[in-house]
Write a structure and sequence with these properties.
With 338 residues, the protein is of the alpha/beta class. It is 55% helix and 11% strand.
Length: 338
Amino acid sequence: MKTDCSRNRVILAGEAVPTAECRRRVEDYLARTGLSIHDFAHRIGYASVTMRFFMADKYHYVGATALNIVRAATDFMNQHPVAPPTRVAGELYETANVRLIQETFEKLLPRPAAYMIYAPPGSQKSFVLEHQVAKLNLAEIPNVEGRRAFYIYARQNLRPRDLIRRVATVCGCRVSADVDPMLNSIRFEFRRNRVLLVVDEAQHLSIECFEMLRELLDQPPYFSLLFVGSHDLKCKFDEFSATLEQWNSRIIAKVKLPGLERAEARAIIERELGHLLKGRSAAANKPLIESLIARSTTRDAFERNRTYINVRTLVNAIEQIRIGAADRDVLEASEGAA
């Protein structure tokens, strides 16, 4: 065994430069993406223990050459670079909700500012904002000093340090156990960029989390911040107005989405199910359309005298019809399901 290790050391010494460079790159990649060594090893087709030997410069215990693992790690990092999200998935419907979100998004790009958008669940705020983030980055990524946008999902009971870890990860910055190094890394990385952070489900954030993010708004390079959530988000700022006094003075506007209008819902249904509705009379199609709208209408938990059309429910119902519409009997069944 000792003889094998000694022979392996000699052979590996000839690969010292590429292996050392690969280790440095993998270490940086893990710090920026938040992946563990186990996760990374799995993605490149190696056992985690093998990856650990490689990263500890002890590959001589595993084999005589590290070129294969170097190649696998390099190929993976090249195929999955650390970069702002640019994948635009799906298509946006032209609705009042979408237009208002887009307008608010654009207002945050020219200068540092903070806005709030709130609406009931199912308004598809997340889908529209992820679309806007990807669309902006896709247009701006060729410009090193261009604008950037990042989407952060705030789960319930998120601690301030974990929130900053999420910000660092989505921004492609180094993640560490302490907040200050991560904030410094974020500031340095984007010192020449205009950056917008979109924090979704922001009603889950604690007061401490809000205060942690305020530092990114108030200190160079002065990020813009868009908080998005349900009515709970607006209620939190109203209820803790004294504690959140600094934030209330910084948020330029608290934008309430108008909701999906019935005419907009009809247009979406007719567009998505046009191939099934074609050849049928308007009178024959009306029960199906009204049924879908009725099934997608729900009572607003915060405004008990108000109902709204849940976009997510409507889209899911349309998709179920499209999937199951091998014959037109599905339409008749859907018409009577209200």
